[in-house]
Amino acid sequence: MPTRDVNTSSDQHPPLFAPGNVVPFFLVTALFLFWGIPSNMNDILIKQFMKSFEITRFKAGLIQSAFYMGYFLLAVPAALVMRRFGYKTGLVIGLFLYSAGTFLFWPAALVQQYGFFLFALFVIASGASFLETGANSFIALLGDPRTSERRLNFSQAFNPVGAVTGVLVGTIFIFSGVELNPQQVATMKAAGTYDAYLRSETLRVVHPYLVLGTVIFLWALLILKTKFPKVAEEAEPANGRSHGKARDLIHYPHFVQGVIAQFLYVGAQVGTWSYYITYIQDYTHRPEKIAGYFLTGTLVAFGVGRFTATYLMKYIQPTRLMGVYGIVNTALVLVAVLFPGWLGVGALFMTSFFMSLMFPTIFALGIKELGPNTKVGGSIIIMSIIGGACAPPAMGLIFQATHSMAVAMLVVMVCYIFITYYALYGSRVRVPALAAVGA
After folding, report:
1. What are φ and ψ of residue 14, in 5° steps?
2. pLDDT digits (tens, 9 = 90+) for 28-66
3. How far apart are CA 78 and CA 132, in angstroms?
C-alpha cells in the first residue's frame, strides 16, 4: 500500500526530466537564451539603421524580413538533418551558422552596405532555425508527455533573459544617444563631417556581435563534446514508418491551426517590439535611449510572465490560461490603438507579460500526438515564424498610409484574436482524424 501511494503521487506529478539528463537539458535550455539575443537586438538595429542608413520604417522593417526568412527557408532542412543524424548534430550545425553570421557584421560595416547586413542576419537566423527546430522538440520529448508544456515553458523562460540581454546591450553599446535635428544635419553636411558621423553610427553595431559570435562558437564545442540521450522518437526502430510522412500532418487539425496560430503570434510579438521604440518616440517624444530602456523593461515583463505561466500551469490547464491571456492582450492592444500616449505605452508594455506563454504553449500543443511526424511537424511550426517577417513591413506600410503607429497596431490585435480562438477551441486533438492517419 505505501508503494502504491508513492507511485500514484509520482503519476500525478511526474518530474520535468530524468535526473541523468541534467547536463544536456542545461546545455539545450541555454540555447533558448542565445537565440533570444539577436532576435531582439533586431529591434535596436531597426532604429539604428534608420539613422545610419537614412531609411524609412518600411525598409528598416526588412531587417525582420531577412531574419525570419532564414527561419522559414532552413527549418525543413534542419529537420531533415536531425532526422538523419539526430538532434545533437543539428544543434551544433545551427550554432556554427549562427556564429558565422555574427562575424559577417564586421565586413558588412566596413563596406557600409545595408544589404550585406541583411545577409548576415539571414545567416544568423538560419543557424537559429536549426536551434529552435531541434531544441523545442528535444525539450518537449525529454520526459513525460504530460509535462511537455511545463517543460517547454520552463526552458522557454530563459528566452526572455536573452531578449533582455540583447536589448540592454544594444541600448547601451549600439545607441550613441546622438539624434540630430535637420539643422544639425545641414551644418554637418556643410562641414563635410556628416558621412563620418553615419559611418561611426554603423560601426557601433560590430563589437557586440563579435563578442556574441565568440560565445556561440565556444558553446558549440561544449555540445559537441557532450553525450546526448536518445529521446523516445530517436529510439524508435529505423523502419519506413518511423519518421512519418509530411502529408499526414494535414489530418491533424490541431497541428494545422497551430501553424497558423504560431505565424500570427510571432507576427504580433515581433511587430510590437520592432516598433515599440518608435511608438514611444512618436507619442511621448522621449529620446532613443529612454525608449530603449522601456523596451528592455517590457522584455523583463516577458520573462516574468514565462516563469509565472510555468508555475500557473501546475494548477490551470495551459489552453485555458492561454485563452485568458489572449483576451487580455486583445484588450490591451485596443487601448494602445485608441489612446496613443503614455496610456498606450503602458498597455503595450503589459502585452509582453501576457504573450509570454504563447510560443512554447502553441508549439507543445501543435506537436502533441504527432508521433513519428514530430520532427517534421516541429520544423513546419518553426517555419511559421515567418510571421515575424511579414508583420513589421505590413505595419510600416500602414504607418506610411495613415501616419499613425497606433493604427498600425491593429495588425497585432487581429493576431491575438485568432490565438484566443486556437487556445480555447482549435488546439483540441481530434481522435477520429488521428485514427484515420494511423489506419
Report:
1. -65, 150
2. 999 999 998 998 899 889 889 989 998 888 888 889 889
3. 10
Pull the grid cell for residue 15. 518530474
- Decide: helix, strand or coil at residue 233: coil
Angle at 158 between CA 263 and CA 269, to 5 degrees: 30
Domains of the chain: 19-227+242-438 (1.20.1250.20)
**Amino acid in the structure at residue 11:** D
Sign of CA dihedral 65, 70, 74, 75: negative
CA 132/CA 94 separation, integer angstroms = 9
**Grid cell locating 125:** 537566423
Q: Rounded distance, CA 408 to CA 268, Å?
A: 11
- Beta carbons of 328 and 305 less than 8 angstroms apart: no
Nearest to 273 by CA among 20, 44, 430: 44
For residue 93, the Cα-to-chain-centroid distance in whole angstroms is 19
Q: Angle CA(373)–CA(374)–CA(379) in degrees, nearest 5?
A: 105
Distance set, CA 241 to CA 99, 113, 233, 238, 306 (Å): 35, 48, 12, 8, 36
pLDDT in tens, 212-268: 999 999 999 999 999 888 765 555 544 444 555 667 788 889 999 999 999 999 999
Using DSSP's 3-state secondary structure scheme, residue 241 falls into coil
pLDDT for residue 432 = 38
Query: With contact defined as beta carbons under 8 Å apart, do 382 and 133 qualify?
Result: yes
Query: Residue 225 has which C-alpha cell?
Result: 563534446
Identity of the amino acid at 427: S
Task: Return d(Cα 390, Cα 263) in angstroms, integer.
Answer: 9
pLDDT of residue 96 exceeding 90: yes
Helix (H, G, I), strand (E, B) or coil at 61: coil
Please give the share of the chain, as a percent, with pLDDT higher than 90: 52
How many whole angstroms separate alpha carbon 131 and alpha carbon 37?
13
Cα→Cα distances 415→32, 148, 333, 393, Å: 23, 25, 11, 15
Burial of 365 (0-12, 13-18, 19+ CB in 10 A): buried
* Single pTM value for the model: 0.76
Burial of 336 by CB count in 10 Å (0-12 exposed, 13-18 middle, 19+ buried)?
Answer: buried
CA distance 102 to 18: 35
DSSP 229: P
DSSP tag of 193:
-
